[in-house]
Amino acid sequence: MQVALELLSCPRLARARWRVCATHRTARSALLLSTVFAFATAVAAPPRVPSEDELRCMYCVEVIRAEIDLQHHMISASDEAAISAPTPELRQQWLNTSAELLQGLAKLEVILNRLQVYMLPRIRALDAYALATALREGDDDFEQSRAIADRCAVQCDPLHAMNEQLQACRASCSNDALLKKVRACENPTWLPPP
């Protein structure tokens, strides 16, 4: 997440970052929702209401999927910047950024796998509408957090602000409750240990 915030200040990546096509995101969400409904309708017993942990898992599945998509886009943009870097030093900085982003991507993929392993055996017995609502909420919250980050990047230009001013600006333009909820998905402490 720290790398993502640092990349916000880079003008070269500003054009390429977070260009996840709305159609792609909608198609991905529709496929996931149809899978949830298919599992739910295949069960003979009436579905049960999901627990808070199960709803949180579905919410986080969508948040982490979106973060993985974002990581892929940022890695691609960083690799492009490395290729067109005017100096070897700048090229190495972009390569280091790509390596850091790849590490972050690997961590997100492990988290997504843990969430899916936890939910897969449970999904058939759960109320599909509640699960679908959790998925939509995860998608909506992630999109709002992206919008906040974009707005803060414009309002809190790190090139023209001193460190204290930058921190104060970022604190004033963000929604801490929403960001904390989204970030909690990166550390799913409610899951059993792997």
Could you explain the architecture of this structure?
- With 194 residues, the chain is mostly helical.
- Helices cover 74% and strands 0% of the residues.
- The radius of gyration is 19 Å and the shape is globular.
- It starts with a helix and ends in an 11-residue tail after the last helix.
- Residues 1-24 have low confidence and may be disordered.
Give a quick rundown of the structure.
This protein is mostly helical and 194 residues long. It is built from eight helices and no strands. Helix 4 (52-83) runs antiparallel to helix 5.
The number of domains: 1
Beta fraction of the residues?
under 5%
Instruction: Please tell me the overall pLDDT.
Output: 80
Structural class: mainly alpha
Strand and helix order: HHHHHHHH
Query: Describe the biggest sheet?
Result: none
What level of helicity do the residues show?
A: over 70%
Distance between termini? Answer: 23 Å
Radius of gyration: 19 Å
**How many alpha or pi helices?**
8
Number of strands: 0
| Regions with little confidence, pLDDT below 50 for 5+ residues | 1-24
Overall spatial form: globular
Task: Give the SSE layout.
Blueprint (H helix, E strand, L loop, with lengths): L1 H7 L2 H6 L5 H20 L10 H32 L4 H32 L8 H28 L7 H11 L2 H8 L11
Helix pairs in contact: 3-6, 4-5, 4-6
